[in-house]
Amino acid sequence: MKDVRDAQFIAKATDGTLVRRPLSPHLGIYRWEITMVSSILNRITGVALAAGTLVLVWWLLAAAAGPAAFALVQEFLISPLGLLALLGWTAALFYHLFAGLRHLAWDIGIGFAKPSLNPVSWAVLAATVLATALVWAVAYMKLEG
Amino acid sequence: MAEKITVMRSQLGRARGLGSAKAGAEHWGVQRISAFALAPLTIWFVCSMLSLLGADLPAVTAWVGRPVNAALLLVLLFMSCHHAQAGLQIVYEDYIKGTLRGVAILGTKAITLLLGVMAAMAVIKLFITAH
């Protein structure tokens, strides 16, 4: 024990042996529920968006640097890896947006009713898929049509 | 409603020195306010990027040259960096222990600040170039 607070994580099992209490995300214990997936995805997409912002920063810096640097970033963005990153970025952006709006609703006390939790979790996922598909359909039509 | 609760904290929690460090509410508020601002900014950003699809550098420069676009880009960058460092801090606080936690938090603040200002300078340069 390095921290006095660790003492509160020590407990006795039924057979009397000392055990360490689990920390909050004890995912190995619970059956997977859509609400868990929904919460975890919000965190994962948030971290992914922090990385995605690097692309925006790169794009702006390249545009400011001149034609050669801008051509390089554009070339990356239309490469298979770049397109995959953009697709992931779009999906992460929409997921975090919709889940974030849900969080803001929770903060003013809306959306805690138990029967709504699972359907709304699915709705956030569905809205993400729809919005992502819409954006990429528009992009495809604009470039190919 | 039951009887009015005046003390939310148990005496045991008080004795153990647990509970609020008196500084969490501001962080919480910052994340909500930046989230609230980022919701419409995100929609604007996605629509803007769609409108700029296939655009060459002069077209992008001209787009940034419009004051509304440049202003919204700067606000988007500020709010994104602020929101990202606040969010990443919570992730670190959940998974990283000890000295490394502080290093990760301050490092992320430094990186997001630097990258945010660099990107903002790029926006300003493009804005000036366009005029």
Q: Quick gist of this model?
A:
The complex is a heterodimer of chains A (145) and B (131). Chain A is mainly α.
Structural class of chain A: mainly alpha
Principal-axes shape call of chain A: elongated
N-to-C CA distance of chain A: 65 Å
Oligomer: heterodimer
Helix fraction of chain B? Answer: over 70%
CATH superfamily of chain A: Fumarate reductase/succinate dehydrogenase, transmembrane subunit
The end-to-end span of chain B amounts to 63 Å
Question: SS-based structural class of chain B?
Answer: mainly alpha
Give the overall shape of chain B, derived from the CA principal axes. elongated
Question: Averaging pLDDT over every residue of chain B, what do you get?
Answer: 91
Taking the sheet with the most strands of chain A, its summary is: 2 strands, antiparallel
Q: What count of helical segments of chain A does DSSP give?
A: 4
Total number of beta strands of chain B: 0
CA gyration radius of chain A, whole angstroms: 22 Å
CATH architectural name of chain A: Up-down Bundle
Task: Provide the residue-averaged pLDDT of chain A.
Answer: 92
Explained architecture:
Chain A starts with 9 loop residues before the first strand and ends with a helix. The mean pLDDT of chain A is 92. Chain A has four helices and two strands. Chain A has helices at 34-65, 67-77, 80-107, 114-144; strands at residues 10-12, 18-20. In chain A, helix 1 (34-65) packs antiparallel against helix 2, helix 1 (34-65) packs across helix 3 and helix 3 (80-107) runs antiparallel to helix 4. Chain A has 145 residues and is mainly alpha-helical. The mean pLDDT of chain B is 91. Chain B is 78% helix and 0% strand. Chain B has 131 residues and is mainly α. The radius of gyration of chain B is 21 Å and the shape is elongated. The longest helix of chain B is centred in the C-terminal third of the chain and has 31 residues, at 99-129. The A-B interface holds A 2, 5, 8, 24-25, 43, 46-47, 49-50, 53-54, 56-57, 60-61, 63-67, 70, 90, 93, 97, 100-101, 103-104, 107, 135, 138-139, 142-143 and B 16, 18, 32, 35-36, 38-39, 42-43, 46, 50, 53-54, 57, 60-61, 64, 73, 77, 80-81, 84, 87-88, 91, 94, 98, 112, 115-116, 118-119, 121-123, 125-126, 129.
